[in-house]
């Protein structure tokens, strides 16, 4: 079984190291030894430290390496859309199995890969693309396929979880917590992909596709990042017995026309501290899955890092190796359900709204009237005199309202109308609430 | 694809119900419709309520049903060793794939089943045998097989977890908490299999076999139940920031001769409240897996109940169905590592020992001397004046000692020698401590 490895960065070098260290065990598990046919890198001659591999194996010619007759399996740990897509489509069409960690590519154009895999009758495995080391895609793809998954709620981005955990623990603002994350190596120099939710959205698309047997792409995912989460929001959450997490949520439901459909979104949300996801701290990932028969399930572990991601890649390599030796391939992508993706306005959510209001009779009635006009039912109202709210904003009174579940559009319209209300001085915080009801 | 279902109790009837409700989805996922060829029960004519199935399908002739030419897959949800073993061995040898939830049989004589599956070139799936709905065996068997698992620590018995959680929450004693569990339906009329750890030990054997690619049977598992856990133990744990759980632990290590080996055990233990397993309450199950590259992982969900277990059975049915349609079988049991199982005396653990002692000079020195003679290193000592310990035992002083990791035999010998010490009035509590160091 001969492998072409594309990329030799943090993950790629760990893959090479593990292939070397565990070669005897891997051979026993597969039934045949694994060999590295070549490693494609951008530049030769870079110091690869003490990587236990023949330097002759490095090449800058990825295309040539993939085409070689003696390559059975292509392992891609480069990332990005191109040239990765062309490489992998060519490999799959030529009947070579692919193991990839490339979430951006799978979310952007998973169809191209799945189609190429079907054309070439080759395997396409991508466990490492979501939640790093956590065995998650195989359970979704294979263990729960006798059940009906209704909802997936995940913390799938370690950088933002580190930042939000720090804000929760220390009361720091976003900028300060981001700075700490950068210093400690949890955030990249350009943190946009993480803090704006692009990374989580790609993973949400992959999870939703598997959970609901439907093709969902990155463009179908409603995405909000965490850059606007304030220390006051975190304090409000704490006052409610909640914490704020960047969640990816994929939920089954019915659209306005009554057809079954899915809603896929990434945004910060308050969740109760008693929820299993609330205690997922630091840069850890966890995914909470709800299924009709199985009930609630949670998968927890390291979502990033060279070794953790390499563990998932190695698991896929063994699976692909066994399949090839047996002359079979894994079940292909299952997209038979072909559900529509609901627009965000139709997603069912709850809102937590904190308002600075004038402390005079009739204010609550006016505010409640706005919610009623938009058919949004209020679950709880808490009215605090000025100065007792965490931030002590020095206004007349603070109204904290938590709603029942309603369509997101109705909630957004409610908040918009509240903005125009005379008695409302300002809207201090608006956050979605998940994990209750 | 035609199924013979053996057993129609809590799990079996849920399997039948799900097969009916989700028949279209299941057919799409497998690529062929599923049909029930027959359901073997002990007695006909029992009221099966509104089970959506032709009453003609019920039979008391399990052997005849299994032998029928039109049966492709045998689903066993009867439990127990015989006649289940004979049925399944015959089915597998005849090339029929088997899906079973029978942990007792797998732990007692898994080899017979695996060998029969190899003989008949048939599939043997048993996801439902451990931790009910939680997709756990497939990740161990297939996702992490590129990694090296070092330790599995699990809460795999819902009944005992319910009892210990109740003791922790209310301060109740074992008998009282067991009574509550029985009333609520969490404990059976004869709770022996649960509270004495037999159920957990069977699951420990299955987990250890998969994690370490080695055959481990129920007889290899050191087993202690929870019947001797007292309210005072729970209070001691709380005073240490810990909680008590019945843990199944399978750990890699080296034996006295320096050979790699495994230790597999089930016993109550204190774990820090900060450990992910500590917050697994009620009748939930969770399994914490540590692997070299992946790091720590946790799987959480419902460990029992008809629907949850049926979800796992259905997942296996789909996998088996797909394999048969593709004309392939899953990778067989992998037991290549063939590691020895260490005796309990060589297991590395930590002890928490609470002693009632005379309050006079030299007592601590004498006690510490006993630990030293057995080469057991003390991590912390806490000395409390009489009456301040939770139970207020009215003795002179209470010494609470927590050790570093040492062989279990050395710890047991230490406790034995402490018993004979003049200054030691009594040994109030001895508990293992896990999840630290």
Automatic annotation (TrEMBL), chains A, B:
Its cofactor is a metal cation. It catalyses: L-homoserine + NADP(+) = L-aspartate 4-semialdehyde + NADPH + H(+); L-homoserine + NAD(+) = L-aspartate 4-semialdehyde + NADH + H(+). SUPFAM superfamilies: ACT-like, Glyceraldehyde-3-phosphate dehydrogenase-like, C-terminal domain, NAD(P)-binding Rossmann-fold domains. Its EC number is 1.1.1.3. Keywords: Amino-acid biosynthesis, Methionine biosynthesis, NADP, Oxidoreductase, Sodium, Threonine biosynthesis. Residues 352-432 form the ACT domain. The keyword Calcium does not apply. Pathway: Amino-acid biosynthesis; L-methionine biosynthesis via de novo pathway; L-homoserine from L-aspartate: step 3/3; Amino-acid biosynthesis; L-threonine biosynthesis; L-threonine from L-aspartate: step 3/5. It comes from Micromonospora cathayae. This is Homoserine dehydrogenase. Belongs to the homoserine dehydrogenase family. It comes from the Bacteria. Catalyzes the conversion of L-aspartate-beta-semialdehyde (L-Asa) to L-homoserine (L-Hse), the third step in the biosynthesis of threonine and methionine from aspartate. Gene3D superfamilies: 3.30.70.260, Dihydrodipicolinate Reductase, domain 2 (3.30.360.10), NAD(P)-binding Rossmann-like Domain (3.40.50.720). Pfam families: ACT, Homoserine_dh, NAD_binding_3. The keyword Cell division does not apply. NCBIfam families: PRK06349.1.
């Amino acid at each position: 079984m001969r492998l072409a490895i594309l990329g030799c960065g943090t993950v790629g070098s760990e893959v090479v190291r593990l292939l070397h260290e565990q070669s005897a065990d891997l051979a026993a598990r597969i039934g045949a030894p694994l060999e590295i046919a070549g490693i494609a890198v951008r530049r030769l001659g870079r110091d690869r430290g003490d990587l236990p591999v023949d330097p002759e194996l490095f090449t800058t010619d990825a295309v040539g390496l993939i085409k070689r007759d003696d390559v059975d399996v292509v392992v891609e740990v480069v990332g990005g859309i191109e040239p990765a897509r062309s490489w992998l489509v060519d490999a799959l069409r030529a009947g070579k199995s692919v193991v990839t960690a490339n979430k951006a590519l799978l979310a952007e154009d998973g169809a191209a890969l799945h189609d190429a895999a079907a054309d070439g009758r080759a395997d396409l495995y991508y466990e490492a693309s979501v939640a790093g080391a956590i065995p998650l895609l195989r359970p979704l793809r294979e263990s729960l396929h006798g059940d009906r998954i209704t909802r997936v709620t995940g913390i799938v981005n370690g950088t933002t979880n580190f930042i939000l955990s720090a804000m929760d623990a220390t009361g720091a603002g976003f900028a300060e917590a981001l700075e700490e994350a950068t210093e400690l190596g949890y955030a990249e120099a350009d943190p946009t992909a993480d803090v704006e939710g692009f990374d989580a959205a790609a993973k949400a698309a992959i999870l939703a596709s598997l959970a609901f047997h439907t093709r969902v792409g990155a463009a179908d995912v409603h995405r909000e990042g965490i850059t606007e989460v304030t220390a006051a929001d975190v304090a409000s959450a704490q006052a409610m017995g909640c914490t704020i997490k960047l969640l990816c949520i994929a939920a089954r439901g019915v659209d306005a026309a009554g057809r079954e459909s899915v809603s896929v979104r990434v945004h910060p949300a308050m969740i109760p501290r008693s929820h299993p996801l609330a205690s997922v701290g630091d840069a850890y990932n966890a995914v909470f899955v709800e299924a009709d028969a199985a009930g609630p399930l949670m998968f927890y572990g390291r979502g990033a890092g060279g070794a953790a991601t390499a563990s998932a890649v190695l698991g896929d390599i063994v699976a692909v190796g066994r399949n090839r030796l047996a002359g079979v391939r894994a079940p292909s992508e299952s997209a038979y359900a072909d559900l529509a993706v609901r627009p965000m306005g139709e997603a069912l959510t709850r809102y937590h709204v904190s308002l600075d209001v004038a402390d005079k009779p009739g204010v609550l009635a006016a505010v409640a009237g706005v919610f009623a006009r938009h058919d949004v039912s209020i679950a709880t109202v808490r009215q605090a005199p000025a100065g007792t709210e965490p931030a002590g904003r020095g206004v007349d009174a603070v109204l904290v309202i938590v709603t029942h579940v309603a369509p997101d559009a109705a909630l957004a319209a409610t908040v918009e109308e509240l903005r125009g209300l005379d008695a409302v001085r300002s809207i201090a915080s608006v956050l979605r609430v998940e994990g209750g009801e």
